[in-house]
Design a protein that fits this description.
With 394 residues, the protein is mostly beta strands. The protein has one helix and 19 strands. The chain has a 16-stranded antiparallel β-barrel with strand order 1-2-3-4-5-6-7-8-9-12-13-14-16-17-18-19. The protein has a two-stranded antiparallel sheet with strand order 10-11. A hairpin with a 5-residue loop joins β6 and β7. The chain starts with 11 loop residues before the first helix and ends with a strand.
């Protein structure tokens, strides 16, 4: 299959057609006609390598590449009563190749499962009363690939404090998924053609509160409760027992996740910001994790900035995990997926942002170009790299 690669720059012609001059909003005038507020074109390339593939029971290649392209269009208008209406339309397409997925059939040199395309559109709408400081939002989304279909919806409400320095937000999300049960070839019943489907449902409630402490410091507290039910294993993940027999991954059909987090941004003058983030995660599969993240955007000139970042992650794995040929027949639930094991990881890199006065490549409405690179290392000997390009139209 040929690689599909649609860069953001290939859509420049489309953006030129939609460019138009609109009056600048002021306290005395707000545009009541729907107009383009912002467009983001993002392309990224991701690759990884390792030797703990869950498809082959926790051993062998984890090589994977992914090319991702998204377009995000924000539309804006004000109603006659001053209500701000924002529409966000996003569409993304990924093309990925996976050496581990290719091993669903151990005898295949290149099977249909070695690559796939994922398409994921979404639409959201927010209604903001700037005078009263409240915002109501709703959205829908979907994600489609060969063995997975997901439909999602969300609703949110935000209320600012009287002085507009604090904001409380509540959000509810639901995802209804269908998983195609593609078993490893040696575990498929003889004479059975086609695949059965299984359902997986996810519901998440989120609460957050943000506060401007002073002109230099902003903070935010976040908490989530996430429940999952249905088929939570992956059907093509093998597990080899200590007696040499091979089995299909088997995990509980319910999971409760509770992450809590804290975020802060401190402004060191006009040219530097320190952004820090910490999250603690736990679930009823006895998996716990800590995430600490720091990013420091530095403005070097009026049109160029650099943002180095570092993220550290430490995970205590689930009680259902064991490696190749360690599980026993006495266990009810079992997996050899190293994403559920105990490990530490580091992710570091930098972003470069250009905001030329005359626009990117002299095009006035294309006011920002950002390039980000990150390198990921994991103590299970997995590594990955990602580079992304974001072109902004406004």
């Amino acid at each position: 299959m040929k690689r599909i690669f649609i860069t953001g720059f290939a859509l420049l012609g489309l953006m030129r057609l939609s460019a138009q001059t609109t009056p600048t909003d002021s306290t005395s005038y707000k545009n009541t006609k729907l107009k383009i507020d912002e467009i983001n074109l993002v392309s990224s390339y991701y690759k990884q390598d390792g030797n703990n593939s869950a498809v082959t029971g926790g051993i062998e290649s984890e090589k994977l590449t992914d090319i991702s392209n998204t377009i995000d269009v924000k539309l804006l208008k004000y109603g006659k009563t001053g209500i701000k209406h924002t529409f966000d339309i996003e569409a993304g397409i990924d093309y990925y190749t996976s050496a581990s997925s290719d091993m669903i059939d151990l005898q295949a040199n290149s099977s249909a499962s070695s690559s796939d395309i994922r398409f994921y559109p979404s639409v959201s709408y927010t209604r903001e009363n700037e005078e009263k400081g409240n915002t109501l939002g709703v959205g829908i989304s979907s994600s489609t690939e060969f063995d997975y279909q997901s439909f999602g919806g969300n609703i949110s409400y935000s209320q600012k404090t009287k002085d507009k320095n604090g904001e409380f937000t509540a959000k509810f999300q639901a995802y209804l998924d269908q998983v195609k049960l593609i078993l490893p070839t040696e575990l498929r019943p003889p004479g059975v053609a086609g695949y059965n489907n299984a359902s997986r449902n996810t519901f998440a409630g989120s609460l957050s509160y943000s506060q401007v402490v002073n002109k230099n410091l902003q903070i935010m507290f976040l908490a989530d409760v996430i429940t999952q039910s249905g088929y939570l294993s992956l059907p093509f993940h093998r597990v080899y027992f200590n007696d040499g027999t091979v089995h299909q991954e088997n995990l509980p059909d319910n999971r409760l996740k509770i992450p809590i987090a804290f975020r802060a941004a401190y402004y060191l003058g006009d040219n530097m910001i320190i952004r820090a983030y910490y999250r603690y995660y736990s679930d009823d599969w006895k998996l716990t994790a800590h995430t600490a993240d720091i990013e420091m955007p530095i403005k070097l000139t009026s049109f160029f900035s650099i943002s180095p970042f570092y993220r550290y992650y430490a995970q205590q794995g689930t009680k259902y995990f064991n490696g190749y040929r360690v599980h026993t027949a006495a266990e009810e639930f079992y997996t050899s997926n190293y994403d559920l094991s105990t490990f530490n990881s580091s992710f570091f890199g930098a972003g470069l942002k250009f905001t030329p006065l005359k626009g990117v490549l002299g095009m006035k409405h294309f006011n920002a170009l950002e390039i980000r690179y990150g390198h990921y290392t994991k103590t299970t000997q997995m590594t990955s790299d990602i580079i992304s390009i974001n072109l902004k139209y406004r």
